[in-house]
Design a protein that fits this description.
Distance between the termini: 88 Å
Strand content: 15-25%
Strand order of the largest sheet: 2-3-5-6
Number of strands: 6
Order of helices and strands: EEEHEEEHHH
Largest sheet: 4 strands, mixed
Length: about 190
């Protein structure tokens, strides 16, 4: 809804757990176009029923040319305020940036794996590489836990932070497992006579 001072306010329903707003200039410097998406979570539905606060799109008085709502299912964006920016339809495409992070983690894992083979007799380097390789492996597991087999995303920042939040405990769990396994393998049996 537009207020008397020209600001545009977003009012969210109770089901909304979070939202994302992307802003970019409209053609011909006629103002700004805002793309909005919302989501709900099981946590929000079942446990924490805190409402998302309503927000103002243009607190500094920028001109709002149009506001589009997009779903994260590949359907066309819906114009909810202002004038359309094109004569046809508008569609928000998923971002592929998480694919690059995934490839980077695979590359680091392969480099560390090759290093482990090459330096298998040097215990100091091997121990360092074993610790390092667990980080990209943890990231790979976290990525598949959060995103599954695909890495396209409409909310790259949110998904990346979730992946990192899962990576950290996975890394510590794998490190602890590595240390326990090393202690078990290095344990010498007692000789009784």
């Amino acid at each position: 809804m537009e207020k008397d001072d020209g600001t545009v306010r977003l009012n969210f329903s109770e089901e909304v757990a979070g939202f994302d707003v992307t802003e970019y200039p409209a053609a011909g410097n006629s103002g700004y176009v805002y793309d909005i998406t919302t989501w709900e979570t099981i946590w929000h539905q079942k446990i924490s029923r805190n409402n998302v606060e309503n927000t103002v799109l243009n607190p500094n008085g920028e001109t709002v040319a149009s506001v589009y709502y997009y779903k994260t299912d590949g359907s066309e964006n819906t114009l909810i305020y202002g004038d359309p920016i094109t004569d046809g339809s508008v569609m928000t495409l998923p971002r592929l940036v998480l694919s690059y992070y995934l490839l980077f983690a695979v590359g680091i894992s392969l480099i560390c794996g090759i290093g482990l083979v090459l330096f298998r007799k040097n215990e100091k380097i091997r121990n360092g590489l074993e610790k390092i390789i667990l980080l990209p492996i943890s990231y790979l597991f976290a990525h598949f836990l959060i995103k599954g087999l695909h890495s396209s995303t409409y909310l790259a920042g949110r998904d990346f932070y979730l992946i990192l939040l899962v990576t950290i405990p996975l890394y510590f769990a794998l490190s602890a497992g590595r240390n326990i396994l090393k202690k078990l393998l290095n344990k010498k049996p007692k000789i009784t006579s």
